[in-house]
Please model this.
Amino acid sequence: MTGSAVAARGVSKAFNGVLALRDVSFGVAPGEARGLIGENGAGKSTLIKILSGALRPDSGTVEVAGEPVHFTSPHGALEQGIGTVHQRNFLVPSLTVLENVELGYERQRTPLGWLDRRPREGSVEALAFVGLEHRLQTPVGAISLADRQLVAIARALSRGSRLMIFDEPTAVLSPVESAYMFDVIERLRAAGTALIYVTHRLEELPRVAAAITVMRDGEIVADADPSLPARDLVELMAGHDAVVHEDAQRAAAQRRARSRPADTSPLLTVNGLSDRDGAFRDVDFALGRGDIVSLVGLPDSGVTQLVAAISGARRPHAGEIRIDGRRVSVRSPRGAIRSGIGYVSGDRGQKGVIPNFSVRRTATLSSLDRVSRFSVIGPAADARLASRFLEQCQVRAASSGMSITALSGGNQQKALVARMLAAEPRVLVFEDPTAGVDVAGREALYDLVAACCERGHAVLWTSSDLREVTTVCDRALVLWRGTVVREIDRDDLTVRALMSAQFNQTDTP
Ligand SMILES: Nc1ncnc2c1ncn2[C@@H]1O[C@H](COP(=O)(O)OP(=O)(O)OP(=O)(O)O)[C@@H](O)[C@H]1O
Ligand SMILES: [Mg+2]
Model:
Protein backbone atom coordinates (compact mmCIF):
# COMPACT_ATOMS: atom_id res chain seq x y z
CA MET A 1 0.00 0.00 0.00
CA THR A 2 2.94 2.34 0.65
CA GLY A 3 3.92 4.05 -2.55
CA SER A 4 0.40 3.77 -3.94
CA ALA A 5 -0.80 6.51 -6.25
CA VAL A 6 -4.30 5.94 -4.88
CA ALA A 7 -5.41 3.48 -2.20
CA ALA A 8 -8.41 2.34 -0.19
CA ARG A 9 -7.67 1.49 3.41
CA GLY A 10 -10.05 -0.64 5.45
CA VAL A 11 -13.04 0.41 3.38
CA SER A 12 -16.52 -1.00 4.04
CA LYS A 13 -19.80 -0.21 2.32
CA ALA A 14 -23.32 -1.56 2.80
CA PHE A 15 -26.50 -1.04 0.78
CA ASN A 16 -29.71 -1.44 2.78
CA GLY A 17 -27.90 -3.55 5.31
CA VAL A 18 -26.27 -5.80 2.73
CA LEU A 19 -22.50 -5.58 2.87
CA ALA A 20 -21.03 -4.90 -0.58
CA LEU A 21 -17.47 -4.26 0.66
CA ARG A 22 -15.97 -5.59 3.84
CA ASP A 23 -12.79 -3.99 5.17
CA VAL A 24 -11.07 -3.75 1.80
CA SER A 25 -7.51 -2.44 1.48
CA PHE A 26 -6.28 -1.99 -2.04
CA GLY A 27 -3.80 0.27 -3.79
CA VAL A 28 -2.12 0.80 -7.15
CA ALA A 29 1.34 2.29 -7.66
CA PRO A 30 2.30 4.79 -10.37
CA GLY A 31 3.05 2.91 -13.59
CA GLU A 32 1.35 -0.22 -12.28
CA ALA A 33 -1.45 -1.87 -14.24
CA ARG A 34 -3.65 -4.04 -12.08
CA GLY A 35 -6.52 -6.25 -13.18
CA LEU A 36 -9.56 -6.41 -10.88
CA ILE A 37 -11.73 -9.49 -11.30
CA GLY A 38 -14.56 -11.25 -9.51
CA GLU A 39 -17.94 -12.78 -10.17
CA ASN A 40 -20.98 -10.62 -10.80
CA GLY A 41 -21.82 -8.89 -7.53
CA ALA A 42 -18.36 -9.38 -5.99
CA GLY A 43 -17.98 -5.66 -5.28
CA LYS A 44 -15.70 -4.43 -8.08
CA SER A 45 -17.85 -1.51 -9.17
CA THR A 46 -18.50 -0.49 -5.59
CA LEU A 47 -14.76 -0.38 -4.90
CA ILE A 48 -13.94 1.67 -7.97
CA LYS A 49 -16.84 4.02 -7.32
CA ILE A 50 -15.36 4.72 -3.92
CA LEU A 51 -11.88 5.30 -5.35
CA SER A 52 -13.28 7.65 -7.96
CA GLY A 53 -15.51 9.68 -5.68
CA ALA A 54 -18.86 8.39 -6.97
CA LEU A 55 -19.67 6.72 -3.63
CA ARG A 56 -18.62 7.42 -0.09
CA PRO A 57 -17.43 4.56 2.11
CA ASP A 58 -19.29 3.81 5.37
CA SER A 59 -15.93 3.39 7.05
CA GLY A 60 -12.28 3.40 6.04
CA THR A 61 -10.43 5.97 3.97
CA VAL A 62 -9.26 6.74 0.47
CA GLU A 63 -5.70 8.02 0.16
CA VAL A 64 -4.06 9.92 -2.67
CA ALA A 65 -0.27 9.75 -2.59
CA GLY A 66 -0.48 8.61 1.03
CA GLU A 67 -2.76 11.45 2.20
CA PRO A 68 -6.36 10.80 3.25
CA VAL A 69 -8.91 12.49 0.99
CA HIS A 70 -12.66 12.93 1.20
CA PHE A 71 -14.16 13.13 -2.25
CA THR A 72 -17.63 14.55 -2.33
CA SER A 73 -18.15 13.91 -6.06
CA PRO A 74 -16.50 12.31 -9.08
CA HIS A 75 -15.47 15.81 -10.04
CA GLY A 76 -13.40 16.12 -6.89
CA ALA A 77 -11.58 12.91 -7.78
CA LEU A 78 -11.13 14.05 -11.36
CA GLU A 79 -9.42 17.21 -10.15
CA GLN A 80 -6.90 14.90 -8.45
CA GLY A 81 -6.29 13.14 -11.76
CA ILE A 82 -8.48 10.11 -11.01
CA GLY A 83 -10.52 9.24 -14.06
CA THR A 84 -12.89 6.41 -14.88
CA VAL A 85 -13.57 5.01 -18.32
CA HIS A 86 -16.92 3.24 -18.49
CA GLN A 87 -18.44 1.47 -21.44
CA ARG A 88 -20.61 4.52 -21.87
CA ASN A 89 -19.28 7.70 -20.47
CA PHE A 90 -21.10 10.61 -18.95
CA LEU A 91 -20.30 13.21 -21.55
CA VAL A 92 -22.45 16.03 -22.88
CA PRO A 93 -23.42 15.05 -26.45
CA SER A 94 -24.17 18.60 -27.60
CA LEU A 95 -20.77 19.92 -26.52
CA THR A 96 -17.63 19.42 -28.58
CA VAL A 97 -14.85 16.99 -27.78
CA LEU A 98 -12.71 19.84 -26.48
CA GLU A 99 -15.52 21.36 -24.42
CA ASN A 100 -16.16 18.01 -22.76
CA VAL A 101 -12.52 17.70 -21.80
CA GLU A 102 -12.54 21.23 -20.40
CA LEU A 103 -15.89 20.91 -18.64
CA GLY A 104 -15.53 22.20 -15.11
CA TYR A 105 -12.49 24.37 -15.70
CA GLU A 106 -12.93 28.00 -14.80
CA ARG A 107 -12.24 30.28 -17.73
CA GLN A 108 -9.69 33.01 -17.11
CA ARG A 109 -10.39 36.60 -18.02
CA THR A 110 -7.94 38.42 -20.23
CA PRO A 111 -6.58 41.81 -19.12
CA LEU A 112 -9.34 43.38 -21.20
CA GLY A 113 -11.98 41.48 -19.29
CA TRP A 114 -12.86 39.08 -22.13
CA LEU A 115 -13.21 35.42 -21.38
CA ASP A 116 -10.13 33.62 -22.62
CA ARG A 117 -11.55 31.09 -25.05
CA ARG A 118 -8.31 29.54 -26.22
CA PRO A 119 -8.07 25.83 -25.46
CA ARG A 120 -5.90 24.99 -22.51
CA GLU A 121 -2.59 23.56 -23.50
CA GLY A 122 -3.09 20.44 -21.38
CA SER A 123 -6.42 19.67 -23.04
CA VAL A 124 -5.07 19.68 -26.57
CA GLU A 125 -2.06 17.66 -25.49
CA ALA A 126 -4.28 15.07 -23.78
CA LEU A 127 -6.50 14.77 -26.85
CA ALA A 128 -3.41 14.34 -29.03
CA PHE A 129 -2.23 11.57 -26.72
CA VAL A 130 -5.37 9.56 -27.44
CA GLY A 131 -5.35 10.49 -31.13
CA LEU A 132 -8.32 12.86 -31.18
CA GLU A 133 -6.52 16.12 -31.97
CA HIS A 134 -8.34 16.35 -35.29
CA ARG A 135 -11.78 16.12 -33.65
CA LEU A 136 -11.52 19.00 -31.17
CA GLN A 137 -14.59 20.79 -32.53
CA THR A 138 -16.73 17.72 -33.25
CA PRO A 139 -19.80 17.36 -31.03
CA VAL A 140 -19.47 14.30 -28.80
CA GLY A 141 -22.91 13.16 -29.98
CA ALA A 142 -21.39 12.58 -33.42
CA ILE A 143 -18.47 10.36 -32.43
CA SER A 144 -18.33 6.62 -31.80
CA LEU A 145 -18.57 4.95 -28.38
CA ALA A 146 -14.88 4.07 -28.73
CA ASP A 147 -13.95 7.71 -29.29
CA ARG A 148 -16.10 8.75 -26.34
CA GLN A 149 -14.03 6.46 -24.15
CA LEU A 150 -10.94 8.22 -25.46
CA VAL A 151 -12.49 11.60 -24.58
CA ALA A 152 -13.05 10.31 -21.03
CA ILE A 153 -9.39 9.33 -20.87
CA ALA A 154 -8.29 12.73 -22.17
CA ARG A 155 -10.45 14.46 -19.58
CA ALA A 156 -8.57 12.78 -16.73
CA LEU A 157 -5.26 13.00 -18.55
CA SER A 158 -5.56 16.77 -18.84
CA ARG A 159 -5.81 16.89 -15.04
CA GLY A 160 -2.63 14.99 -14.37
CA SER A 161 -3.79 11.42 -14.72
CA ARG A 162 -2.75 9.87 -11.46
CA LEU A 163 -5.08 6.89 -11.73
CA MET A 164 -7.15 5.69 -14.65
CA ILE A 165 -9.85 3.13 -13.96
CA PHE A 166 -11.26 1.06 -16.80
CA ASP A 167 -14.59 -0.65 -16.14
CA GLU A 168 -14.97 -3.28 -18.88
CA PRO A 169 -14.24 -0.83 -21.67
CA THR A 170 -13.94 -3.41 -24.43
CA ALA A 171 -17.40 -4.91 -23.87
CA VAL A 172 -18.75 -2.40 -26.37
CA LEU A 173 -15.74 -2.15 -28.69
CA SER A 174 -14.94 -3.91 -31.94
CA PRO A 175 -11.68 -5.90 -32.10
CA VAL A 176 -9.89 -3.06 -33.90
CA GLU A 177 -11.11 -0.49 -31.39
CA SER A 178 -10.07 -2.76 -28.52
CA ALA A 179 -6.57 -3.12 -29.93
CA TYR A 180 -6.26 0.66 -30.07
CA MET A 181 -7.54 0.95 -26.50
CA PHE A 182 -4.89 -1.53 -25.31
CA ASP A 183 -2.26 0.57 -27.02
CA VAL A 184 -3.46 3.75 -25.28
CA ILE A 185 -3.53 1.89 -21.96
CA GLU A 186 0.06 0.75 -22.37
CA ARG A 187 1.22 4.28 -23.23
CA LEU A 188 -0.56 5.66 -20.16
CA ARG A 189 1.13 3.10 -17.97
CA ALA A 190 4.53 3.78 -19.49
CA ALA A 191 3.96 7.47 -18.73
CA GLY A 192 3.51 6.63 -15.03
CA THR A 193 -0.27 6.49 -14.61
CA ALA A 194 -1.62 3.88 -12.19
CA LEU A 195 -4.24 1.68 -13.87
CA ILE A 196 -7.09 -0.49 -12.69
CA TYR A 197 -8.65 -2.70 -15.32
CA VAL A 198 -11.96 -4.46 -14.57
CA THR A 199 -12.97 -7.20 -16.96
CA HIS A 200 -14.80 -10.50 -17.35
CA ARG A 201 -12.83 -11.28 -20.47
CA LEU A 202 -9.99 -13.05 -18.74
CA GLU A 203 -8.07 -13.57 -21.96
CA GLU A 204 -7.48 -9.80 -22.10
CA LEU A 205 -5.62 -9.70 -18.80
CA PRO A 206 -2.11 -10.68 -19.96
CA ARG A 207 -2.29 -7.82 -22.47
CA VAL A 208 -3.25 -5.10 -20.02
CA ALA A 209 -2.21 -6.08 -16.51
CA ALA A 210 0.95 -7.17 -14.71
CA ALA A 211 -0.92 -8.31 -11.59
CA ILE A 212 -4.48 -9.21 -10.67
CA THR A 213 -6.58 -8.66 -7.55
CA VAL A 214 -9.41 -11.16 -7.09
CA MET A 215 -12.59 -10.19 -5.22
CA ARG A 216 -15.28 -12.42 -3.83
CA ASP A 217 -18.34 -11.48 -1.76
CA GLY A 218 -17.07 -7.99 -0.99
CA GLU A 219 -13.57 -9.00 0.01
CA ILE A 220 -10.18 -9.27 -1.62
CA VAL A 221 -9.37 -12.95 -1.63
CA ALA A 222 -6.22 -13.29 -3.74
CA ASP A 223 -3.44 -11.71 -5.70
CA ALA A 224 -2.84 -13.56 -8.93
CA ASP A 225 -0.67 -13.60 -11.98
CA PRO A 226 -2.37 -12.66 -15.28
CA SER A 227 -0.80 -15.66 -16.99
CA LEU A 228 -2.66 -18.15 -14.76
CA PRO A 229 -4.99 -20.40 -16.76
CA ALA A 230 -8.54 -19.08 -16.89
CA ARG A 231 -9.73 -22.12 -14.99
CA ASP A 232 -7.55 -21.23 -11.98
CA LEU A 233 -8.71 -17.62 -12.02
CA VAL A 234 -12.33 -18.72 -12.17
CA GLU A 235 -11.73 -21.01 -9.19
CA LEU A 236 -10.29 -18.12 -7.21
CA MET A 237 -13.31 -16.01 -8.08
CA ALA A 238 -15.82 -18.72 -7.25
CA GLY A 239 -14.05 -19.98 -4.13
CA HIS A 240 -14.61 -23.59 -5.13
CA ASP A 241 -13.89 -25.92 -8.00
CA ALA A 242 -14.56 -24.14 -11.20
CA VAL A 243 -18.00 -24.79 -12.50
CA VAL A 244 -16.87 -23.78 -15.95
CA HIS A 245 -15.94 -26.41 -18.41
CA GLU A 246 -12.35 -27.44 -18.22
CA ASP A 247 -11.72 -26.50 -21.72
CA ALA A 248 -13.85 -23.95 -23.52
CA GLN A 249 -13.08 -25.47 -26.90
CA ARG A 250 -14.16 -28.91 -25.78
CA ALA A 251 -17.33 -27.52 -24.24
CA ALA A 252 -18.06 -25.72 -27.49
CA ALA A 253 -17.55 -28.94 -29.43
CA GLN A 254 -19.94 -30.71 -27.08
CA ARG A 255 -22.56 -28.06 -27.51
CA ARG A 256 -22.23 -28.28 -31.25
CA ALA A 257 -22.60 -32.04 -31.08
CA ARG A 258 -25.93 -31.51 -29.26
CA SER A 259 -28.72 -33.61 -30.56
CA ARG A 260 -30.60 -31.92 -33.36
CA PRO A 261 -34.36 -31.71 -33.38
CA ALA A 262 -35.91 -34.30 -35.69
CA ASP A 263 -37.31 -31.52 -37.83
CA THR A 264 -34.70 -28.98 -38.95
CA SER A 265 -36.87 -27.19 -41.50
CA PRO A 266 -36.72 -23.38 -41.62
CA LEU A 267 -38.23 -21.66 -38.62
CA LEU A 268 -37.33 -18.03 -39.29
CA THR A 269 -37.19 -16.85 -42.90
CA VAL A 270 -36.19 -13.36 -43.89
CA ASN A 271 -36.98 -12.43 -47.49
CA GLY A 272 -35.86 -9.31 -49.34
CA LEU A 273 -35.74 -7.27 -46.19
CA SER A 274 -34.69 -3.67 -46.80
CA ASP A 275 -34.27 -0.73 -44.50
CA ARG A 276 -35.86 2.61 -45.23
CA ASP A 277 -32.59 4.43 -44.60
CA GLY A 278 -30.62 1.90 -46.63
CA ALA A 279 -28.77 0.47 -43.62
CA PHE A 280 -29.42 -2.98 -45.10
CA ARG A 281 -30.78 -4.03 -48.48
CA ASP A 282 -32.50 -7.08 -49.85
CA VAL A 283 -31.44 -9.41 -47.08
CA ASP A 284 -32.40 -13.07 -47.40
CA PHE A 285 -31.61 -15.82 -44.97
CA ALA A 286 -33.22 -18.64 -43.05
CA LEU A 287 -32.71 -20.19 -39.64
CA GLY A 288 -33.61 -23.84 -39.33
CA ARG A 289 -34.98 -25.32 -36.12
CA GLY A 290 -32.01 -25.97 -33.88
CA ASP A 291 -29.74 -23.47 -35.65
CA ILE A 292 -27.51 -20.95 -33.89
CA VAL A 293 -26.46 -18.38 -36.46
CA SER A 294 -24.42 -15.24 -36.01
CA LEU A 295 -24.69 -11.95 -37.85
CA VAL A 296 -21.28 -10.33 -38.06
CA GLY A 297 -20.09 -7.05 -39.50
CA LEU A 298 -18.31 -3.77 -38.96
CA PRO A 299 -20.20 -0.90 -37.30
CA ASP A 300 -21.54 0.37 -40.66
CA SER A 301 -22.49 -3.08 -41.94
CA GLY A 302 -26.14 -2.82 -40.96
CA VAL A 303 -26.09 -5.70 -38.45
CA THR A 304 -27.51 -3.49 -35.69
CA GLN A 305 -30.36 -2.20 -37.84
CA LEU A 306 -31.15 -5.66 -39.20
CA VAL A 307 -31.37 -7.07 -35.69
CA ALA A 308 -33.60 -4.12 -34.73
CA ALA A 309 -35.92 -4.88 -37.65
CA ILE A 310 -36.21 -8.56 -36.75
CA SER A 311 -36.88 -7.80 -33.10
CA GLY A 312 -39.53 -5.18 -33.82
CA ALA A 313 -37.58 -2.07 -32.88
CA ARG A 314 -37.29 -0.75 -36.44
CA ARG A 315 -39.80 -1.00 -39.25
CA PRO A 316 -38.38 -2.36 -42.49
CA HIS A 317 -39.31 -0.61 -45.69
CA ALA A 318 -39.71 -3.76 -47.78
CA GLY A 319 -39.53 -7.51 -47.49
CA GLU A 320 -41.00 -10.00 -45.09
CA ILE A 321 -40.30 -12.04 -42.01
CA ARG A 322 -41.85 -15.46 -41.69
CA ILE A 323 -42.03 -17.87 -38.80
CA ASP A 324 -42.82 -21.42 -39.71
CA GLY A 325 -43.81 -20.22 -43.16
CA ARG A 326 -46.37 -17.76 -41.80
CA ARG A 327 -45.77 -14.13 -42.42
CA VAL A 328 -45.53 -12.20 -39.18
CA SER A 329 -45.75 -8.52 -38.53
CA VAL A 330 -43.23 -7.29 -36.03
CA ARG A 331 -44.08 -3.64 -35.75
CA SER A 332 -42.99 -3.33 -32.15
CA PRO A 333 -41.00 -5.30 -29.59
CA ARG A 334 -44.31 -6.49 -28.13
CA GLY A 335 -45.47 -7.59 -31.55
CA ALA A 336 -42.25 -9.53 -31.97
CA ILE A 337 -42.78 -11.32 -28.65
CA ARG A 338 -46.35 -12.18 -29.67
CA SER A 339 -45.01 -13.58 -32.93
CA GLY A 340 -42.58 -15.75 -31.03
CA ILE A 341 -39.44 -13.66 -31.40
CA GLY A 342 -37.59 -12.85 -28.17
CA TYR A 343 -34.84 -10.27 -27.98
CA VAL A 344 -32.20 -9.32 -25.47
CA SER A 345 -29.46 -6.73 -25.74
CA GLY A 346 -26.27 -6.28 -23.78
CA ASP A 347 -27.02 -2.58 -23.86
CA ARG A 348 -29.10 -2.86 -20.74
CA GLY A 349 -28.76 0.81 -19.84
CA GLN A 350 -30.62 1.85 -22.96
CA LYS A 351 -32.80 -1.13 -23.71
CA GLY A 352 -34.43 -3.31 -21.15
CA VAL A 353 -33.98 -2.35 -17.55
CA ILE A 354 -37.05 -0.61 -16.16
CA PRO A 355 -35.70 1.21 -13.12
CA ASN A 356 -38.40 0.75 -10.49
CA PHE A 357 -39.23 -2.85 -11.27
CA SER A 358 -38.28 -5.62 -8.91
CA VAL A 359 -35.99 -8.39 -10.07
CA ARG A 360 -38.99 -10.74 -10.14
CA ARG A 361 -41.20 -8.44 -12.21
CA THR A 362 -38.36 -7.86 -14.61
CA ALA A 363 -37.99 -11.58 -15.13
CA THR A 364 -41.68 -12.19 -15.86
CA LEU A 365 -42.48 -9.00 -17.75
CA SER A 366 -42.47 -10.64 -21.16
CA SER A 367 -44.42 -13.68 -20.05
CA LEU A 368 -47.26 -12.16 -18.05
CA ASP A 369 -49.74 -13.90 -20.34
CA ARG A 370 -48.43 -17.23 -19.22
CA VAL A 371 -48.35 -16.32 -15.58
CA SER A 372 -51.91 -15.09 -15.67
CA ARG A 373 -53.29 -17.99 -17.74
CA PHE A 374 -56.45 -19.49 -16.15
CA SER A 375 -56.64 -16.06 -14.49
CA VAL A 376 -54.33 -17.21 -11.76
CA ILE A 377 -52.46 -13.96 -11.76
CA GLY A 378 -51.27 -15.24 -8.45
CA PRO A 379 -47.98 -14.04 -7.12
CA ALA A 380 -47.10 -17.68 -6.48
CA ALA A 381 -47.01 -18.54 -10.17
CA ASP A 382 -45.17 -15.33 -10.86
CA ALA A 383 -42.56 -16.14 -8.25
CA ARG A 384 -42.18 -19.74 -9.42
CA LEU A 385 -41.64 -18.79 -13.02
CA ALA A 386 -39.24 -16.02 -12.06
CA SER A 387 -37.20 -18.06 -9.67
CA ARG A 388 -36.78 -20.92 -12.11
CA PHE A 389 -35.31 -18.72 -14.80
CA LEU A 390 -33.38 -16.46 -12.45
CA GLU A 391 -31.72 -19.54 -11.04
CA GLN A 392 -30.95 -21.01 -14.43
CA CYS A 393 -29.33 -17.75 -15.46
CA GLN A 394 -27.38 -17.57 -12.18
CA VAL A 395 -28.76 -14.20 -11.12
CA ARG A 396 -27.41 -13.36 -7.70
CA ALA A 397 -29.83 -11.11 -5.84
CA ALA A 398 -30.30 -10.63 -2.09
CA SER A 399 -34.03 -11.14 -2.77
CA SER A 400 -36.13 -11.29 -5.92
CA GLY A 401 -38.26 -8.47 -4.51
CA MET A 402 -35.38 -5.98 -4.63
CA SER A 403 -35.15 -3.32 -7.30
CA ILE A 404 -33.45 -4.39 -10.51
CA THR A 405 -31.21 -1.33 -10.44
CA ALA A 406 -29.74 -2.39 -7.09
CA LEU A 407 -28.22 -5.45 -8.74
CA SER A 408 -24.64 -5.42 -9.99
CA GLY A 409 -24.26 -4.78 -13.72
CA GLY A 410 -23.73 -8.40 -14.70
CA ASN A 411 -26.66 -9.59 -12.60
CA GLN A 412 -28.98 -7.06 -14.26
CA GLN A 413 -27.91 -8.43 -17.60
CA LYS A 414 -28.57 -12.01 -16.50
CA ALA A 415 -32.05 -10.97 -15.30
CA LEU A 416 -32.86 -9.63 -18.77
CA VAL A 417 -31.83 -12.91 -20.32
CA ALA A 418 -34.02 -14.72 -17.76
CA ARG A 419 -36.95 -12.53 -18.83
CA MET A 420 -36.46 -13.44 -22.46
CA LEU A 421 -36.15 -17.16 -21.77
CA ALA A 422 -39.19 -17.12 -19.46
CA ALA A 423 -41.34 -15.99 -22.39
CA GLU A 424 -40.21 -19.12 -24.28
CA PRO A 425 -39.86 -17.50 -27.69
CA ARG A 426 -39.36 -19.77 -30.68
CA VAL A 427 -36.71 -17.53 -32.19
CA LEU A 428 -34.20 -16.05 -29.77
CA VAL A 429 -32.38 -12.92 -30.88
CA PHE A 430 -29.34 -12.05 -28.81
CA GLU A 431 -27.36 -8.85 -29.27
CA ASP A 432 -24.17 -9.01 -27.25
CA PRO A 433 -26.07 -10.74 -24.40
CA THR A 434 -23.01 -11.57 -22.30
CA ALA A 435 -21.68 -8.02 -21.99
CA GLY A 436 -20.56 -7.71 -18.36
CA VAL A 437 -21.53 -11.29 -17.49
CA ASP A 438 -19.01 -13.39 -15.55
CA VAL A 439 -17.36 -16.50 -16.94
CA ALA A 440 -19.62 -19.01 -15.20
CA GLY A 441 -22.73 -17.05 -16.19
CA ARG A 442 -21.65 -17.00 -19.81
CA GLU A 443 -21.11 -20.75 -19.87
CA ALA A 444 -24.52 -21.24 -18.28
CA LEU A 445 -26.12 -19.12 -20.99
CA TYR A 446 -24.39 -21.02 -23.79
CA ASP A 447 -25.72 -24.25 -22.32
CA LEU A 448 -29.24 -22.83 -21.98
CA VAL A 449 -29.16 -21.70 -25.58
CA ALA A 450 -27.97 -25.10 -26.77
CA ALA A 451 -30.81 -26.71 -24.81
CA CYS A 452 -33.36 -24.40 -26.46
CA CYS A 453 -32.03 -25.45 -29.83
CA GLU A 454 -32.35 -29.12 -28.98
CA ARG A 455 -36.02 -28.42 -28.36
CA GLY A 456 -36.33 -26.97 -31.84
CA HIS A 457 -35.95 -23.23 -31.24
CA ALA A 458 -33.61 -21.15 -33.39
CA VAL A 459 -31.09 -18.53 -32.31
CA LEU A 460 -29.71 -15.41 -33.93
CA TRP A 461 -26.63 -14.21 -32.08
CA THR A 462 -24.45 -11.14 -32.44
CA SER A 463 -21.44 -10.35 -30.31
CA SER A 464 -18.60 -7.86 -30.11
CA ASP A 465 -16.49 -10.83 -29.03
CA LEU A 466 -15.67 -12.87 -32.12
CA ARG A 467 -14.26 -15.71 -30.06
CA GLU A 468 -17.67 -16.06 -28.55
CA VAL A 469 -19.21 -16.29 -32.01
CA THR A 470 -16.88 -19.15 -32.88
CA THR A 471 -17.67 -21.07 -29.71
CA VAL A 472 -21.42 -20.52 -29.69
CA CYS A 473 -22.57 -20.50 -33.30
CA ASP A 474 -22.98 -23.08 -36.04
CA ARG A 475 -22.75 -20.61 -38.84
CA ALA A 476 -22.07 -16.92 -39.45
CA LEU A 477 -23.49 -14.51 -41.99
CA VAL A 478 -21.12 -11.66 -42.73
CA LEU A 479 -22.65 -8.32 -43.68
CA TRP A 480 -20.86 -5.60 -45.61
CA ARG A 481 -22.51 -2.24 -46.16
CA GLY A 482 -25.98 -3.62 -45.75
CA THR A 483 -25.83 -6.88 -47.66
CA VAL A 484 -24.91 -10.43 -46.77
CA VAL A 485 -21.60 -11.04 -48.53
CA ARG A 486 -20.50 -14.34 -47.05
CA GLU A 487 -21.70 -17.30 -45.15
CA ILE A 488 -19.14 -19.16 -43.05
CA ASP A 489 -19.96 -22.69 -42.02
CA ARG A 490 -19.07 -24.37 -38.80
CA ASP A 491 -15.92 -26.06 -40.10
CA ASP A 492 -14.40 -22.76 -41.22
CA LEU A 493 -15.70 -20.65 -38.35
CA THR A 494 -12.59 -19.08 -36.79
CA VAL A 495 -11.85 -15.59 -35.50
CA ARG A 496 -9.40 -15.13 -38.35
CA ALA A 497 -11.99 -16.09 -40.96
CA LEU A 498 -14.54 -13.72 -39.42
CA MET A 499 -12.05 -10.86 -39.31
CA SER A 500 -10.92 -11.25 -42.87
CA ALA A 501 -14.46 -11.65 -44.19
CA GLN A 502 -15.43 -8.35 -42.54
CA PHE A 503 -12.48 -6.42 -43.84
CA ASN A 504 -11.53 -7.93 -47.17
CA GLN A 505 -14.43 -6.65 -49.14
CA THR A 506 -14.23 -4.41 -52.12
CA ASP A 507 -16.83 -1.83 -52.97
CA THR A 508 -17.73 -3.18 -56.37
CA PRO A 509 -17.89 -6.94 -56.44
N1 LIG B 1 -27.20 1.07 -5.48
C1 LIG B 1 -27.23 -0.12 -4.89
N2 LIG B 1 -28.24 -0.45 -4.06
C2 LIG B 1 -28.29 -1.65 -3.46
N3 LIG B 1 -27.37 -2.61 -3.61
C3 LIG B 1 -26.33 -2.35 -4.42
C4 LIG B 1 -26.21 -1.10 -5.10
N4 LIG B 1 -25.07 -1.13 -5.83
C5 LIG B 1 -24.51 -2.34 -5.62
N5 LIG B 1 -25.26 -3.08 -4.76
C6 LIG B 1 -24.95 -4.44 -4.30
O1 LIG B 1 -23.59 -4.50 -3.94
C7 LIG B 1 -23.02 -5.74 -4.32
C8 LIG B 1 -21.78 -5.52 -5.16
O2 LIG B 1 -22.15 -4.95 -6.39
P1 LIG B 1 -21.10 -4.42 -7.45
O3 LIG B 1 -21.88 -3.63 -8.45
O4 LIG B 1 -19.99 -3.74 -6.76
O5 LIG B 1 -20.59 -5.79 -8.10
P2 LIG B 1 -19.57 -6.02 -9.32
O6 LIG B 1 -18.43 -6.81 -8.79
O7 LIG B 1 -19.26 -4.74 -9.97
O8 LIG B 1 -20.41 -6.97 -10.27
P3 LIG B 1 -20.54 -6.99 -11.89
O9 LIG B 1 -19.46 -7.87 -12.38
O10 LIG B 1 -21.87 -7.65 -12.11
O11 LIG B 1 -20.51 -5.61 -12.39
C9 LIG B 1 -24.12 -6.51 -5.03
O12 LIG B 1 -24.69 -7.40 -4.11
C10 LIG B 1 -25.13 -5.44 -5.42
O13 LIG B 1 -26.44 -5.95 -5.46
MG1 LIG C 1 -19.73 -3.91 -11.92
User: Anything to note?
Assistant: The radius of gyration is 24 Å. DSSP finds 18 helices and 20 strands in the chain.
